[in-house]
Amino acid sequence: MTPTHLAYIVSAALFAVGLKRMSSPATARQGNLLSAVGMLVAVVFTLARAGLDYRWIAVGVAAGSLVGIVTALKVQMTSMPEMVALFNGSGGLASLLVGWAEFNGQPGPHAVPFLVAVVLTILIGGVTFTGSVIAWGKLSGKVYSGPVTFPGQQVVNGVFLLAVVTLGVLFCVQFGGGGTWRLMGPNTYIYLFVFGAQLLGVMAVIAIGGADMPVVISLLNSYSGLAACAAGFVIDSSILVVAGAFVGASGLILTSIMCKAMNRSLANVLFGGFGVADSSSGGGTEQGEAQAASAQDAYYVLEAAQSIAFVPGYGMAAAQAQHAVRELGDLLEANGAEVQFAVHPVAGRMPGHMNVLLAEANVSYEKFIEMDDINPIIESVDVCVVIGANDVVNPAARDDASSSIYGMPIIEVDRARNVFVLKRSMASGFAGISNPLFYKANTKMIFGDAKATIETLVEEFKAS
Amino acid sequence: MSQNMLLVLMLAVFLGFELIVRVPSTLHTPLMSGSNAISGITIIGALLAVETSGQGGTLSLVLGVCAVFFATINVVGGYAVTNRMLMMFSKKEVGQ
Q: Which residues, 6+ apart, have CB-to-CB distance to A256 below 8 Å?
């Protein structure tokens, strides 16, 4: 037992306590700092090991810190999903490189478990890296955000995955078995793994539509933990295994929450090619006329309302309307109404995305109400203001068994007394499904930029 | 590698599940970016790969330095942005 081992135990404890503190908004920041201290302790005591090349380490750490800090401080809260995807990808790439460097630095013969760990580290790390980069591209609009599919895609992917796994088994048998039979040299194998893993990551994520990105990001988050975990087996370090397992578990829980909130199985998200082209998408004129209203009309209703629930979606982020929404909320409260923010678990492009935006705008977290808590009381809500949300308030998910989102839990705003939907146009949502909510008698559409509409309402209240 | 590591892995997965199911959905984005930063623990492996006289020669050194670079982005950026977000969640109480 060396001081470094003791330090790693302290780090693991700090990670655990840090995650525990994440369970309340009041202690979460402290939890994150504890976790960061745990990381610092682990790094400092690792540096104490003899034989490290500090000059090169300094170069890597300085450059990485600079990039990390600048990105973290400059990023807009609306772009958080893209940035998390990028950080995730860089963690996966780091694990891949660690596995590779470690194999390269160890003279043979190798034990089979070591080889298995090397293969897994490179494969999971590589998939995490390119998968995250594609997810980033889809989220930021740099890559076509719909699902990219072709006939026989799943067969191709399956065969490809099988080939990579077979190669992995051959690699372990050849270099761990002590035999002399060689299909290829060790480096050829490693190049194939590095290349194959990255190709797998691309193929896995291009097939998934933009609407499913919350699931994909959660899953990639889990993979980045599993890659670190596998790297822990490569370098025989339990701190990597423990910390990696925490992240793996965290990502899996979020993935399962996201899947439940969309009423889809993980397999369906990964292989479904969802959101290709719904036959009923777009038009929907057969459902009657949507009623348009002006911001002034909305003002008179809101002014008289006793309870108001805002239901934000990605459109609020796109319009950067969160500050105006908070101001309107404050004015409504000053006017004597009860104001709540009902956030669907998959609203936005990552879990909890809307909560972060509203918190940025100074909305107190006590005002957030979860889907399961508002639905039973939604009939007593005077006005629901839907801001740039679409699929998560689509009653077709509840009523229309032929809809592709049928069974997905929604915030049932159509049962509230009045609904205002702030939307740029009648275009269908991210998932490409028409929304009967827009044609309900108690629904009024306010077309235009959500931020401008909210600001008009704020002006009306200030003028009164 | 010993079988103890597998035991540690199993227990850590259980502990991880117990810790994280308690996180409310409001905090899921900070949870994700914070746990993302923790996955940067792979930096330990990266640092150990940058040796002065390792067996792996230049290739291992280059791979190691690149690994340090990317892992540091993950760690530093992840913690910094999580802290930035969580400050937004707590400033309401401090401010008023």
A: A266
B84 touches chain A (CB under 8 A): yes
Q: Where are the domains of chain A?
A: 1-74, 79-271, 285-463
The CATH code of domain A285-463 reads 3.40.50.1220
Say if B91 is an interface residue toward chain A (CB within 8 Å).
yes
Asked if A41 contacts A32 with a C-beta cutoff of 8 angstroms, the reply is no
Which residues are within 8 A (CB) of A74 and not within 5 positions of it... i.e. 6 or more apart?
A: none
CB A122 within 8 A of CB A189: no
Banded model confidence at residue A248, pLDDT cuts 50, 70, 90: very high
pLDDT per residue as tens digits for the range A152-204: 888 888 899 999 999 999 998 888 876 677 778 888 999 999 999 999 999 98
CB-CB under 8 Å, A46 with B26: no
Residue A94: Cβ within 10 Å count: 35
State the Cα–Cα distance between residues A409 and A368, nearest whole angstrom.
18
For the entire predicted model, the pTM comes to 0.89
Tell me: ipTM over 0.90. Answer: yes
Which DSSP symbol is given to A422? E
* Bridge partner residues of A83 (DSSP): none
Of B16, B20, B48, the CB nearest to A49: B48
Is the distance from CB of A320 to CB of A451 less than 8 angstroms? yes
Buried-state track A408-445, b at ≥16 Cβ within 10 A, e below 16: bbbbbbbbbebbbbbbeebebbbbbbbbbbbbbeebbb
Return the pLDDT at A17: 96
pLDDT tens for each residue of B31-88: 999 999 999 999 999 999 998 777 778 888 999 999 999 999 999 999 999 999 999 8
